[in-house]
Amino acid sequence: MMTLCPLAPQVLYAKDTPRDPENSQWVDPFIGTGGDGHTFPGAVTPFGMVQLSPDTANLYRGKDPQPEIYKHSAGYHYDDSTIIGFSHTHFSGTGHSDLGDLLIMPMIGEAHITAGTAEHPETGYRSRFDHDRETASPGYYAVDLLDYGIHAELTATDRASMHRYSFSRGEEAHVMLDLTTSMYNFDNKVIWSDVRILDKQTLLIHRSTNGWANNRPMYFAVRFSRPFTDIDLHNLDNKRYRCNGCLDKKNNRPSTINNPDEPYAAGKAIKILAHFTEPTREPLLIKVGQSAVSYANAMENLDTEIDHWDFDRVRAETKKKWDTQLSVINMKGTDSQKRQVYTALYHALQAPHIYQDVNGEYLGLNGTIQKATDHTNYTLFSLWDTYRALHPLLTYVAPDRVPDMIQSMLLHYQQSYNNMLPIWSFQAHETWTMIGYHAVSVISDAYLKGIRGFDIDLAKQAILDTANHPSYDAIPAYKKYGYVPMDKLAESVSITLEYAYDDWTIARLFEELGDDETAQEFYGRATSYKNLFDPRVKFMRGKDSQGKWNPDFDPEEAKLMGPFTEGSSFQYSFYVPHDIAGLIDLMGGDTPFIERLDTLFTKELDHEKIKEHEDIAGLIGQYAHGNEPSHHIAYLYNYAGQPWRTQARIRQIMDTLSSDKPDGLAGNDDVGQMSAWYIFSSMGFYPVAPGDLSYAIGAPQVPEISLTLQNGKHFGVTASNLSETHKYIASATLNGAPLNRSYITHQDIMAGGQLHFEMSDKPNKAWATQQDQRPPSLSVNR
Predict the structure, then answer these.
(1) Are 285 and 163 in contact (CB under 8 A)?
(2) pTM value?
(3) Residue 704 forms beta bridges with which residues?
C-alpha cells in the first residue's frame, strides 16, 4: 500500500472555512454530483464560458477499463475516490456527455503521461482524494491530491481561469496538460490538436473534437507564474520532443520556426509535461484563457480578464458576482432548505452561457467568425428541458440577459443551413437532440411578459419558418394529418403533443402582435392533441397514417424509438399544458381526471417496462420526477377543482425526491430545469404552460421567500403555521385581499407585494374549486 504524504500545514480544509454573510454561503456545489444529478462542483461565474472542474472519470484513449459514461456526464461523480485532473469545459446536469477540454494535472515524483486506474492510481498521473479534504463554493474549488501532497485550488472569470497548486514535498514538480481526454465515449474523439511554446511560461493550445458536436474547436492560452525548467511534448506516435535548449535564451522565444527541434507538436493525441524545480518554494499558479475563435482571442481573453497573479482577488471578485446574482432571492427557512434553494438558483444561473470573446467575436453556427456588436452571444440551449421552468425563471432572476439569449437564438436561425431556431444546441453546433421547437415558447413567453431588446420582426420570421419547416421531424405530416403518424416517425405521440403546445405559444404571440389570421391558424393547430386521444382507453395513443390505433399499446411502456419520448402514455397523456380543461373533458370530467392523476402516483411501476431509458427516474408510482415530461403534472389537480391534492403531492415530491446531499436530485438537473422546478415549487407556484402568464399554485415550502424584481419592486411569499404536518392551504391573500383562485399571474408578480398563505394540517376542500377560480386553459379562456 502506498503511504500518503501529509500536506503542508497551511492548507485550509472545508471544515475550517469561515461562513460568508452573503447568500453564496448556502450554495453547496456538491448537491447533484452524486446519483444521476450530473452536476459538477468546479469553478464557474454566472453564465460563464469557463467551467473549470475536477474529472474523476477515465474517459481517455487507452486500454484501461472505462466507467459508465452516463454516470460521468459532468466528468465528476461523488462516488469516485480518484481525480485524473481539472478540465475547463463541462455540462451541468445533462443526460449526454461531451466537452472536458484541456485537462491539467499537477504531480511530484515520477512523471506520468497516462492516467492510470482508479484501483492503482500510482500507475499514472491520477491521485486519490477524500471528500473531507475537498471544498467548493461559487467560483471556487479546492482539493488535496493525496498521492502527491498537493493542495489544488481553482477559480474562474467569464472567459479565463486560474489554478493554484501548493506543493508540500518533492524536488521536482510536473504539470500534465492532456489534450486527449474526452467525455464523449470510450475512444479518443480528437480530430486534431497542437501546442506552441511561446516562451518558458506561455503555451498556446488548440484542439478540435468530434463528439455530440462534431468538429468543435477550442483554443487556450496557458501561462505559468514562473518559468518551467524543461518541457516534454508527447505525440500519438510516441515521438518525444524535449524542449531543453530549444528556446533562445536571449529573448526567451523560439529561435526558429522550421527548426526540427522547435517547441511545437501537432497530432491527434498530444500530451505536455512541464517540469518545475523547488516546488515547495511557493505555490505554482497557472492562468488559462479560452476561446472558440483563435489563439489570439484566447490570449486577449486571458490578458483582459486576469492581468495579474492574485488568485484570491479573482476568487473574491467571482464570489461578489455570485452574491449579486444570488441576491435576487431572499428567504427564511431551515439550513437544509436554504442550501437547496440557493444551490438550485446557483445551478439555474449557469446556462445558457456566454459564447463570445472580449472583442465580441464568436464562432457562428455556419463555421464562420462572427462579431456581436450590440449584444452578448450565448450558447447551450437545452430547450426540450429548459423551456418549461428555467427560461420562465430567468425572466425574473436574470431579465437583463434574456433579450441577448433570444437574439442569440435568432442569429442561430440566420446562420443555420436550413433556417431553424435552435433545438438542442451548444458551441456553434446543433445536435438535433430531443423533439419539438421549443425556442418559440421561450420567445413568446418573454415577449408577452414585456421583455424587448431583440428583433421581433426577425423573431416572427424565424418562428414561422421553424414551425412550418418542410424537413424537420414530421411537420408536413403533422400539418397534413393533424398528428404525426407512428408509421412516419418514432416518438410520434410525444412530437404531436409538443408541437401542439408550441403552436399555442405561437398563436398567443401573434395575437398579441395583432396578426389574428396567423393566430387563428396556430390556435387550430394547438388542438391537434385531441387527434391522438383514444376515447376507448382514455390515453394518448399512437396512430398510423391510415388512422389505425397502435395495436401493441401499453400505457406503462416506455421504449426507445417507441411512440413516446423518454416516457410512457401514463405520463404523456397529461402533456397538454396549454389546455388542461380540454384534456379534462376528453377524460370524462373532473372526477375521472382526478382518479387518473391519483393512479399515476399510486400505481406500481413494472421497471421492466422502462428499462431502456436511463432518464426515467425519481419515481412515485408511474410519476417520474427525474424527467421533464412529468414536471407539471402534480399541479394539474388545480384544473379539476381540487388544489388540496396538488398541495399534498408537491410536499410528497419535495420530501422524498430532493435533499441537500450529493444525491439530492432525483435525476439529471438538465441544465437547470430541475433546479428551476425546485425554486418555483418552493415559492408555491409553477408555470404549467409558459406563455399564458399564469402560475398554478402548489403550496409554499418555506416560511418566507421573496423575489427582487428588475423594476425595483419585491414580490414575497409568506406562510403562517407551515410545518411538516401543516402542508395544506387554509386560506390565501394577495396584498391583503382574499385570494380564492388557485393561480397567480405575471402581472401579480411584477406589481410587487405579498402573497400570504395560512397553512393547516387539514385540507380546505372548498378553496379555489369553481371553474372561474382555476388556472386558465385554451378551451375555457378563448
Answers:
(1) yes
(2) 0.94
(3) 332, 718
User: E strands of 228-377, at which residues?
Assistant: 230-234, 240-242, 247-248, 253-254, 264-267, 271-277, 284-291, 329-332, 353-354, 361-363, 369-371
Q: Residue 159 carries which DSSP code?
A: S
Q: In the predicted model, is pLDDT for residue 11 greater than 80?
A: no
| Cα–Cα distance list, 770 to 622, 642, 698, 732 (Å) | 29, 9, 17, 16
For cell 393561480, name the residue. 743
Q: Measured between alpha carbons, how far is 173 from 156 in angstroms, rounded to an integer?
A: 23
Residues 511, 513, 515, 519: what is their CA dihedral angle, to the nearest 10 degrees? -30
14-323 and 328-781 in the same fold: no
Residue 197 one-letter amino acid: I
List, in order, residues 6 or more apart from 146 with CB less than 8 Å away: 4, 5, 127, 128, 129, 130, 133
C-beta of residue 220 within 8 angstroms of C-beta of residue 205: yes
Q: How far is CA 307 from CA 166, 222, 407, 563, in A?
A: 21, 13, 31, 55
Query: CA triplet 61, 65, 70: central angle to 5 degrees?
Result: 85
**Residue position matching grid coordinates 418549461:** 388
Compute how many other C-beta atoms are within 10 angstroms of the C-beta atom of residue 747. Answer: 11
Instruction: Dig out the grid coordinates for 113 from the structure.
Output: 503521461
Residue with cell 386553459: 777
Which residue is associated with the grid cell 445558457? 352
Closest to 698 measured CA to CA, from 767, 652, 734, 648: 648
Find out whether 755 and 744 touch, Cβ atoms under 8 Å.
Answer: yes
What is the H or E stretch that residue 219 is in?
strand 216-224
Query: Which residue's C-alpha cell is 408555470?
Result: 687
Residue with cell 403533443: 497
- The architecture in CATH of the region 14-323 reads Distorted Sandwich (2.70)
pLDDT of 220-264, one tens digit each? 999 999 999 999 998 865 554 444 434 443 333 333 333 345 578
> How many other C-beta atoms lie within 10 A of the C-beta of residue 310?
12
Classify 303 as helix, strand or coil.
helix
Amino acid occupying residue 763? P
CA triple 304-307-311, angle to 5 deg: 120
Instruction: Tell me the residue length of the chain.
Output: 782
For 96-110, the DSSP string reads S-----SEEEEEESS
Instruction: Quote the CATH superfamily of domain 328-781.
Output: alpha-1,2-mannosidases domains (1.20.1610.10)
Q: Comparing C-alpha atoms, which of 184, 181, 183 is closest to residue 193?
A: 181
Cell 441544465 locates to 671
Cα separation of 150 and 174, whole Å?
11
Terminal-residue alpha carbon distance, the chain: 73
Residues 6+ apart with CB under 8 A from 642: 590, 594, 765, 769
User: Alpha-carbon torsion 252, 256, 259, 265, what sign?
Assistant: positive
Q: Where are the domains of the chain?
A: 14-323, 328-781
Eight-class DSSP state of 775: P
How confident is the model over 560-593, as pLDDT tens digits? 889 999 999 999 999 999 999 999 999 999 999 9
Task: Give kind and range of the element (H or E) at residue 466.
Answer: helix 456-467
- Among positive and negative, which fits the CA dihedral 164, 169, 175, 178? negative
**Average confidence (pLDDT) over 204-226:** 94
Sheet holding 85-87, edge to edge: 53-55, 85-87, 103-108, 172-178, 271-277, 230-234, 240-242
H/E element, 318: helix 311-326
Please, are residues 782 and 698 in contact by the beta-carbon 8 Å criterion? Answer: no
Residue 409 carries which DSSP code? H
The three cell numbers of residue 37 are: 444529478
| pLDDT score recorded for residue 76 | 95
Phi, psi of 392, deg, nearest 5: -60, -35
Distance of CA 202 to the CA centre of its chain: 33
Phi, psi of 534 (to 5 degrees): -85, 110
Rounded-to-integer distance, Cα 600 and Cα 634, Å: 10
Q: What is the Cα–Cα distance from 576 to 479, expressed in whole angstroms?
A: 18
